[in-house]
Recover the amino acids of this structure.
């Protein structure tokens, strides 16, 4: 099957700032791709180009269409949620469902009502009466009820409580996703989505820093918890990163044989957050975040 | 077509207070005015003898005078509706491409498979046809209610309402002309509508100021340059806009030089167009060279607004 998203030399410039810098992307059908990057990395700019919301340089095809010229036609097969609750505050819930039903040929009102039945939202509510989390719930229910081929989620669960976040990702996987659909997710809460991702893309300063499947991640990257006396031997194998926790040295390696690493200490598959910190380099917000988490974990212990 | 109608319906729902409540409020104002008039009469003259006398005077007057008075009453009742309709359409168009950028709901609307062209067309059609139609329904209902009040008053005065005014009234013609005039004026006003949508598409904030200040500044500058050149410039933007209003196919009731009062198209102070109230004169304006120039200006404004809309997101 052809790729759902195919980009060659995609760039997006805002004045003197190059938000997206000559990136290539190929996302096949039936994948759940995490687009991860720090603030200002170019995630939203890339998504806006993909959704036909911004002009761009380079070649970009989404479901075989040029998004900058065929946005309306593209939106029959693509749906998206932006990073904030953006539903019109003046509308009643039933009016939003009406207009979506009349405009979108792939929207199922019945399915939407089924999702809404698990929330406190009723058709008689006005959007401005709902809390921010409820607005997100409503938007997610509308989007999940659209039989789209590509779903783009930009920080979809921002403002939601943990129970609904878990429920949303469970629904996404069980009720929505199949081999004919693709999902592109950007989020800072990577630990919540990593178990559902099939592919991982890291983006930094407008460039792709990593683009591979989760299987490849598991094959290529290994984390080793090393005792202090083995640390120099581990460093000799040129790890991607090194950090310290509870008196142990934790090294992350790219493409080193697991048999070799097993002699140094205990092996783990790195989580996406640790891999992100390692690939993107220390000193960014994620490194700081991990350090805070480690301190919190130490304090709790 | 379904998508277009769905978008028009959305416009109605978003602006239900301006589009639905305002005409109802106008109806209420007219009814309140009628009630206050009756109350005032009864306050000073509880036997309504003055009113009865006035009704008898009208009943005995010449048919042509009654006919002219009722005809002017028919059309004069529309002018307040026309004025409020203009205000509603002005503010609606000013917010039409601005409000969803302001509250960021543009991202939701752009996630639906409706093109920017269709979206803009639905907004323009709402301003040109839906809002005038809703106001027209309220105008007709108000008119009917006023007819009923007048008929009851005449009956109470001991006269026959049919012979006094109903037989010489031609409400259907008045209603038809008012609706035709509002539609014709919507076409005539397209350059202004285009300007308002363009301002709505680009204003970062306060679209009202962006809409009014540039034409005002240009007009003042032109007048000033005119003054410096000892009044050699024949026209300026302010003059063009005034002439556009003078020539418009909107119904105005006003006095003539000979002291009589009449209903006209536009303002009868020059003879660039025939100001007599006929459908033919409305069409004469819509198929004129000024209208052609106006359509070119409207096309430029709307094209630019569409270009801005296609690039507009939440920032």
């Amino acid at each position: 099957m052809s790729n759902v998203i195919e980009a060659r030399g995609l760039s997006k410039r805002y004045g003197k700032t190059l938000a997206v810098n000559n990136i290539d992307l190929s996302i096949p059908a039936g994948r759940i791709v995490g687009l991860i990057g720090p603030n200002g990395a170019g995630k939203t700019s890339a998504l806006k180009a993909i959704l036909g919301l911004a002009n761009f340089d380079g070649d970009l095809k989404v479901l075989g269409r040029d998004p900058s010229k065929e946005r309306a036609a593209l939106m029959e097969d693509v749906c998206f949620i932006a990073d904030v609750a953006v539903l019109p505050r003046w509308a009643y819930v039933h009016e939003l469902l009406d207009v979506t039903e009349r405009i979108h040929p792939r929207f199922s009102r019945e399915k939407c009502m089924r999702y809404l039945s698990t929330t406190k939202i009723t058709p008689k509510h006005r959007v401005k009466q709902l809390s921010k989390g409820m607005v997100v719930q409503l938007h997610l229910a509308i989007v999940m009820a659209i039989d789209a081929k590509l779903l783009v989620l930009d920080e979809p669960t921002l403002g939601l409580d943990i129970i609904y976040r878990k429920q949303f990702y469970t629904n996404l996987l069980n009720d929505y996703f199949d081999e004919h659909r693709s999902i592109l997710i950007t989020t800072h809460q990577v630990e919540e989505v990593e178990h559902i991702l099939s592919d991982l893309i890291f983006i930094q300063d407008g460039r792709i820093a990593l683009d591979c499947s989760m299987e490849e991640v598991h094959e290529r990257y290994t984390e080793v918890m090393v005792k202090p006396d083995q640390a120099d031997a581990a460093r000799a194998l040129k790890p991607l990163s090194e950090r310290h926790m509870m008196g142990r040295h934790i090294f992350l390696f790219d493409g080193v044989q697991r048999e070799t690493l097993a002699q140094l200490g205990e092996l783990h598959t790195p989580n996406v957050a640790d891999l992100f910190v390692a690939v993107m380099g220390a000193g960014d917000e994620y490194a700081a975040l991990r350090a805070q988490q480690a301190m919190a974990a130490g304090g709790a212990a | 077509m379904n998508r277009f109608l769905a978008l028009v319906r959305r416009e109605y729902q978003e602006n239900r207070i301006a589009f639905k409540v305002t005409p109802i409020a106008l109806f209420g104002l007219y009814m309140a005015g009628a009630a206050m008039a009756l109350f005032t009469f009864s306050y000073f003259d509880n036997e309504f003898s003055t009113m009865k006398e006035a009704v008898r005077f009208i009943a005995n007057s010449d048919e042509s005078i009654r006919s002219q008075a009722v005809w002017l009453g028919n059309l004069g009742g529309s002018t307040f509706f026309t004025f409020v309709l203009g205000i509603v359409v002005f503010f609606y168009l000013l917010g039409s491409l601005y409000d969803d950028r302001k509250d960021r709901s543009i991202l939701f609307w752009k996630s639906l498979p409706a093109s920017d062209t269709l979206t803009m067309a639905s907004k323009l059609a709402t301003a040109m046809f839906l809002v005038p139609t809703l106001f027209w329904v309220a105008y007709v209902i108000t008119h009917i209610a006023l007819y009923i009040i007048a008929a009851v008053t005449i009956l109470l005065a001991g006269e026959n309402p049919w012979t006094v005014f109903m037989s010489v009234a031609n409400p259907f013609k008045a209603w038809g002309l008012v609706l035709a005039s509002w539609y014709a004026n919507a076409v005539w006003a397209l350059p202004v509508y285009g300007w308002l949508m363009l301002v709505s598409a680009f204003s970062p904030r306060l679209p009202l100021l962006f809409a009014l200040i540039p034409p005002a500044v240009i007009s003042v500058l032109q007048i000033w340059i005119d003054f410096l050149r000892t009044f050699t410039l024949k026209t300026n933007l302010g003059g063009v806009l005034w002439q556009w209003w003078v020539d418009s196919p909107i119904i105005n009731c006003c006095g003539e030089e000979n002291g009589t009062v009449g209903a006209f198209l536009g303002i009868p102070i020059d003879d660039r167009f025939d100001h007599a109230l006929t459908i033919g004169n409305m069409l004469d304006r819509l198929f004129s060279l000024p209208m052609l120039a106006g359509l070119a200006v409207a096309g430029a404004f709307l094209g630019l607004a569409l270009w801005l809309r296609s690039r507009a997101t939440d920032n």
